[in-house]
Write a structure and sequence with these properties.
Elements (H helix, E strand, L loop, with lengths): L14 H17 L4 E6 L7 H5 L22 H8 L4 E9 L1 H4 L2 H6 L3 H20 L6 E3 L4 H5 L31 H7 L19 E8 L2
Antiparallel strand pairs: 1-2, 2-4, 3-4
Helix pairs in contact: 1-6
């Protein structure tokens, strides 16, 4: 693994430097395979209780099985409070072919798994880059349950007292699991996004999306 050169933490860092770093992180996300990435302000992150509520109504089969899923992940209210302490973030989009994310076969074969792992990897590396640049409180959120991406056939070790996550550098809560309304955020960012399900017509679905967000400063 390549050694990182750390930058001194500067609580008085000027806004121009921060914006230049954000522009670099945006390009880094695209270099790593993101379809697009946008610099956003923290007040553009939409948090709603009903988004997290969709994890339990109807209940997701992975509900409660991972430290990064409800009810263990931060609540919508905790997320709203935390967002007030950040100013900027990088919002990342990964386009997924429709037949890999929608329809009975995609769900049965979990063909979207490589794409979930890809967005987890991009988020992880962006968070790491910001951390070593002195943004020591950079925080990432990805897409889908990390349980299905990394530990589909074994229990989440982080839920066992005295043990930690097997993949702490990659596994992150999904944006939805902490109450972020990703669909509306994507639409407001100008990205095409559609409802995805087992019964959707693949002929009428141009593509699917996975989203990630890294709060930087």
């Amino acid at each position: 693994m390549e050694a990182k050169i750390p930058r001194k933490i500067d609580p008085l860092r000027d806004d121009d430097t921060c914006r230049a770093d954000l522009a670099r992180y945006r390009l880094l996300a695209i270099e790593m395979g993101a379809s697009d990435a946008k610099i956003i302000q923290s007040d553009q992150v939409i948090v709603e209780n009903r988004v997290r509520g969709k994890c339990s109504v109807p209940k997701c089969p992975f509900y409660g099985l991972s430290l990064n899923c409800p009810p263990h992940s931060p609540s919508a209210e905790e997320t709203r409070i935390m967002l007030k302490e950040y100013k900027y973030g990088v919002f990342v989009r990964l386009i997924v072919p429709s037949d890999q994310i929608a329809g009975e076969r995609a769900f049965e074969e979990d063909s979207m798994r490589p794409f979930r792992k890809k967005i987890q990897d991009i988020v992880s590396k962006l968070e790491s880059a910001a951390f070593y640049d002195g943004y020591h409180l950079a925080m990432g959120f990805a897409a889908g349950t990390c349980k299905r991406s990394f530990c589909p056939d074994i229990e989440c070790s982080a839920l066992t007292p005295g043990k930690g996550c097997r993949f702490p550098l990659w596994a992150r809560p999904s944006m939805e699991s902490v109450g972020m309304n990703v669909y509306t955020m994507a639409a407001k960012a100008g990205w095409e996004i559609y409802p995805i399900g087992k019964n959707v017509s693949l002929k009428e679905l141009p593509h699917g999306n996975y989203m990630g967000l890294v709060l930087i400063y």
